[in-house]
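user: Please review this fold.
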Amino acid sequence: MKLRCQRNELAFGVQTVSRAVSGKSTLPILSNVLLEASDGQLQLTATDLELSLRCKIAAEIEEEGAITVPCQLFQDVVTNFVEAQIELRLEENQLNVMAGVSDYNIRTLPAEEYPVLPEADPDQLIRLGQGTLKRLIGLTSFACSKEDTRAIMTGALVEIGGATIRVVATDTHRLALAQSALPEPAEVDTSAIIPARALIAMERVLAPEDERQVEIGLGENLVQISTDDVVMVSRLIDGQFPNYRRVIPAEHDKRLVLEREPFALAVRNVRVVAQRDANKIILETADGVLQLRAESQEVGKGYEEVPVKVEGDDVQIAFNAVYLEDVLRILDADTVVMDLAGSLSPGVIRLQEDDDYLYVLMPMQLT
């Protein structure tokens, strides 16, 4: 194998597939990235047998071939180069990586030892803009559970029905739902629970606009998400996702309308104290102002206030400051709306004049 390619493209490729490499594997080959050079392209592949990522980049191929090298070491070497062009040359059991005067020899393992990656074999392919899918994932995946004991909730429910795609994530303390219209209606309604790790890995390589398309294919126990350059295949999470519709409040009698950035800053500031007391932050309205309070016997008290438009009676309710800050950070709207129905009922954060997103937040005890 002998080839030349651009440093920035190779760095992008290895960084992309490295998200499928697990440090917990007992198989040395799974710590490696598979390099395959043919037909004017270099294909990079990595897997932990649950998540697989492939990325193709352009290359000048002098000799075709395939080999595997330690992913982390290869990534460190490539990203540290400053030269624009890199040459890769396989010599016996070492990969020679050169750029300008830099020259590294990396030990390899045979490509034949690398596992054969599964194919999703989807019943149907759904196409939509990359920017749309990137937004859906970004608005929801942060609400997935981080606890492996709740395996179902470590993924997001993806529902495809009619002309709509919907993504839902929850960890029982909060729930995020985002949906969008599909360019063409789906032939068959379907749903699946996709691991958050797989969605986040793909979200990072999707373009922010809709000019380029992405394909989603759901198989019996696999999902495949593909762009022109990157293919992700992941095992689905087996089980029954919670009935999220029962969690979404049907009614509210109070509404707060707030400027997002000042509200987010106030929450972030008060959280410094709140994190010493289970992250509890108390919100209370009075005279056109939203007061934010946190108190800890260990460090003292914190107070901020921001202007608010109140529809209905004044409010007093407590939330987890971390969960509140999470959603305010990822939203890109100037204004947010919070619908409430009492101090013991969930709050719902929405975007003004946008019915395609909501964030349900469970309250905390005031005292």
Observations:
- The chain has three domains: 2-113, 125-245, 248-361.
- The longest strand covers residues 51-58.
